[in-house]
Write a structure and sequence with these properties.
With 346 residues, the protein is α/β, with parallel strands linked by helices. It contains eleven helices and nine strands. Helices cover 27% and strands 13% of the residues.
């Protein structure tokens, strides 16, 4: 276990890493020893590229098909206007009763805590989200909605990435949520400690533990190669602080759409104290059709990993359908019966 006061980096290190993120295809290609004219890359994407150096350091040098690189490198395929892929496939605009908040499911709401991320994932389902309509100041006016609805037990911080907020602002937001008596749980959906593990620092941990709210962090890992020594240190500190750690992945073509990659990810997550939670079918977002995995393939993969892993390491295979009261659990194929009965007469 790594005590939060002995993390091997300073509290502001993450901000330095964030400001030094790579934003040009040519620069990223050069760092990885690759040609910048790979035929399917897009040097002038409409959705900007942004990749921090700690994440780049985990990519395989000289490999244009590296699974981490594929998640962040702009592709010409993003320009394809594929049928059925839309700007807002989840109809999130219709779930916002007030700016800064989405209310999709009973008993919980999602706060748009930030409009930026530390990394621009190419499969992002909010790449066209109207963040300008959801901006707010440190009075957090969207919380009036939560105060007025006693059925809300959980507040989910999302964005963008909520951990991109400075600690001072995050502390004010958590304190404001904590002051609402009927709210019992705080959930933070984040990829920032995945790409910049230095975001886990003593001030952040103090914010998360000095609250009466039961706190859960849902990380976004998609491949075992995303977990290195610094990531392990960061999540060990969170785990030691008593924070529940879960992971949700997206099933992505060319990244993790094989059973070996999915099993390796679950094993690697558990080694650093994170439980696999959800495996999402990718949302049908404009510009992401090249990542699409069909339902039949997904169910076959899920059935295979069920046969290879203990149940607690198998994430639920889900997809989100607008208007449904919860994410849809996708039924997988029946596992074959393996006879273990011993014939006493042989």
């Amino acid at each position: 276990m790594i005590p939060s006061n002995s993390l091997p980096w300073q509290a502001k290190t993450w901000q330095t890493q964030l400001s030094g993120a790579v934003t040009q295809v040519q620069d990223l290609a050069q760092i990885l020893g690759l040609s910048d004219d790979v035929e399917d890359w897009d040097a002038d994407p409409t959705f900007p590229m942004r990749v921090p150096m700690p994440y780049i350091s985990r990519m395989n040098h000289g490999d244009p098909r590296d699974p981490l690189l594929r998640q962040v490198m702009p592709q010409l395929a993003e320009r394809i206007d594929a049928v059925g892929f839309e700007s807002d496939p989840l109809l999130e605009a219709s779930t916002a009763p007030i700016p800064g908040l989405l209310h999709k499911y009973q008993g919980r709401v999602l706060v748009i805590a930030a409009e930026h991320c530390a990394v621009n994932c190419r499969y992002c389902f909010r790449r066209d989200f109207s963040y300008a309509k959801h901006r707010h100041d440190t009075t957090f006016p969207m919380l009036d909605y939560v105060r007025d609805d006693a059925s809300i037990r959980e507040v989910i911080l999302s964005g963008g990435d909520p951990l991109i907020m400075p600690d001072e602002r995050l502390n004010k937001l958590v304190a404001s949520i904590e002051a609402i008596p009927h709210v019992k749980r705080l959930r933070i959906h984040t990829r920032l400690p995945v790409v910049i593990p230095q975001r886990v620092c003593r001030p952040l941990i103090e914010i998360l533990v000095n609250t009466r709210l039961s706190t859960t962090i849902v990380a976004h890992f998609n491949h075992a190669n995303e977990i290195d020594k610094d990531v392990a240190i960061a999540f060990a500190a969170l785990r030691q602080a008593g924070i529940t750690l879960l992971n949700q992945s997206v099933l992505l073509a060319g990244v993790n759409d094989d059973d070996v990659a999915l099993c390796d990810l679950s094993e690697a997550l558990f080694e650093v104290g994170i439980l696999p939670y959800y495996l999402h079918l990718p949302d049908r977002v404009r510009g992401t059709s090249h990542f699409h995995v069909d339902t039949d393939t997904a169910t076959r993969l899920h059935t295979t990993i069920q046969s290879k892993l203990p149940g607690y390491l198998v994430p639920k295979l889900v997809r989100e359908i607008p208007g449904r009261p919860a994410k849809e659990l996708i039924a997988t194929d029946s596992l074959p019966v393996i006879s273990t009965r011993i014939d006493p007469f042989t």
